[in-house]
Amino acid sequence: MLDKSQLKPLQTSAKTATEIAKFDQLAEEWRKDDGRFKHISEFNRCRVNAIVAQLAQHFALDLELPVPLSGLRILDIGCGAGLVCEGLARLGADVTGIDGSAVNIEVARRNATSQSLSIRYQHCLAEQLATEEVERFDVVLNTEVIEHVDNQQLLTQTCAALLDDDGLLVMATINRTIKSFIIAILGAEYIMRMLPIGTHDWRWFISPGQITDWLRQQGIKSQRAIGVKYNPLTKTWRTSKDISVNYMLFASRRP
């Protein structure tokens, strides 16, 4: 068992600390394919497939190769218990995962070791890494994180600072619409119980337009946005043109 007394806290805002504590309690549960959050595991697989497809297009990769992401340096900001990191590492990527939750990082490290996956995990916030890191990354991922932080513009700027000139930035979050309140909060948390009640706060949801504006200030242009949609009848996730709830934004410094 993990000895939480050995984990050092980070210097964070009150909101960030509250959000980290919330996800500390769920670190193990997210990983269970047959657990109460099994739909989230399926959601993750859908996202990883979409990310890999976009990486193949951006970097002209051959997905028929055994390890098509070989040589790509990928940073996953807010990596949680490591599900996205693992999927990309299996395809050959050089993956670094960071998270504000020491519990998440410990769970992620343990699972990577058990699967013989070489993934660098670090307990820190993106802003801390940006002040220490000399290297920039080919790919920066920030998935389902920005809706949990208080300074969303700073996080966006930090993602941009860590991205290599020819790199690809992937930001995934939830749009702030009436539809997202009905589906992502009332539906997912209160009715279907796909997530614990209180996981999200609609006031912290953010539109792709707002993220695009902040990225433009950093010299980064949005390339495309795609939605990720759940079908309650088939209990499956798929990508969609509908970005009114869950969406993924792909951006780059390329003209």
TrEMBL record:
<keyword id="KW-0489">Methyltransferase</keyword>
<comment type="pathway">
    <text>Cofactor biosynthesis; ubiquinone biosynthesis.</text>
</comment>
<comment type="function">
    <text>O-methyltransferase that catalyzes the 2 O-methylation steps in the ubiquinone biosynthetic pathway.</text>
</comment>
<feature type="binding site">
    <location>
        <position position="143"/>
    </location>
    <ligand>
        <name>S-adenosyl-L-methionine</name>
    </ligand>
</feature>
<dbReference type="Pfam" id="PF13489">
    <property type="entry name" value="Methyltransf_23"/>
</dbReference>
<keyword id="KW-0808">Transferase</keyword>
<feature type="binding site">
    <location>
        <position position="78"/>
    </location>
    <ligand>
        <name>S-adenosyl-L-methionine</name>
    </ligand>
</feature>
<dbReference type="GO" id="GO:0010420">
    <property type="term" value="F:polyprenyldihydroxybenzoate methyltransferase activity"/>
</dbReference>
<feature type="binding site">
    <location>
        <position position="99"/>
    </location>
    <ligand>
        <name>S-adenosyl-L-methionine</name>
    </ligand>
</feature>
<dbReference type="GO" id="GO:0102208">
    <property type="term" value="F:2-polyprenyl-6-hydroxyphenol methylase activity"/>
</dbReference>
<dbReference type="GO" id="GO:0061542">
    <property type="term" value="F:3-demethylubiquinol 3-O-methyltransferase activity"/>
</dbReference>
<keyword id="KW-0830">Ubiquinone</keyword>
<dbReference type="InterPro" id="IPR029063">
    <property type="entry name" value="SAM-dependent_MTases_sf"/>
</dbReference>
<comment type="similarity">
    <text>Belongs to the methyltransferase superfamily. UbiG/COQ3 family.</text>
</comment>
<feature type="binding site">
    <location>
        <position position="47"/>
    </location>
    <ligand>
        <name>S-adenosyl-L-methionine</name>
    </ligand>
</feature>
<dbReference type="InterPro" id="IPR010233">
    <property type="entry name" value="UbiG_MeTrfase"/>
</dbReference>
<protein>
    <recommendedName>
        <fullName>Ubiquinone biosynthesis O-methyltransferase</fullName>
        <ecNumber>2.1.1.222</ecNumber>
        <ecNumber>2.1.1.64</ecNumber>
    </recommendedName>
</protein>
<keyword id="KW-0831">Ubiquinone biosynthesis</keyword>
<dbReference type="GO" id="GO:0032259">
    <property type="term" value="P:methylation"/>
</dbReference>
<keyword id="KW-0949">S-adenosyl-L-methionine</keyword>
